Amino acid sequence: TRTQKPTLSDCQTNEYADAQLQEIVRKMRERATIYKEKLKDPVLSSPEGSPTASPSKKPLPSPSKESKIEEKKEEAEAKPEMVHYYDMLCCKFKKPLLKKYMEYLQLPDSIDSYTDRRYVAWLMLVTVAYNWNCWFIPLRFVFPYQTPSNTIYWFTIDVICDICYLCDLLIFQPRVQFLKGGDIISDRVEMKKYYHSSRKFQLDVLSVLPFEVLYFFFGFNPAFRANRMLKHNTFFEFNDRLEAILDKAYIYRVIRTTGYLLFMLHINACLYYWASDYEGLGSTRWVYDGKGNMYLRCYYWAVRTLITIGGLPEPQTLFEIVFQLLNFFLGVFVFSSLIGQMRDVIGAATAGQNYYRSCMDNSVSYMNTYSIPRVVQNRVRTWYEYTWDSQGMLDEAELLGQMPSKMQLAVAIDVNFAIVNKVDLFKASSFTGEWGNGCDRQMIYDMLLRLKSIVYLPGDFVCKKGEIGREMYIIKQGEVQVLGGPDGTKVLVTLRAGAVFGEISLLAAGGGNRRTANVVAHGFANLFILDKKTLNEILVHYPDSEKLLMKKAKVLLKEKGKPAPGPPVQQPRGLASLFGQKQETPKLFKAMLGGRGKEGLARLLQLKREQDIQVKPQETDRGNKSTEKTKKKANKQKSRRKETPAEEENKSEPEKKPVEPTASSAPPAQQEELNAHAKPKPPAVMHRGTSNESLIISMSPSPRAGEGEILKVEAKEKKKK
Question: What's this model's pTM, rounded to 2 decimal places?
Answer without folding.
Answer: 0.56
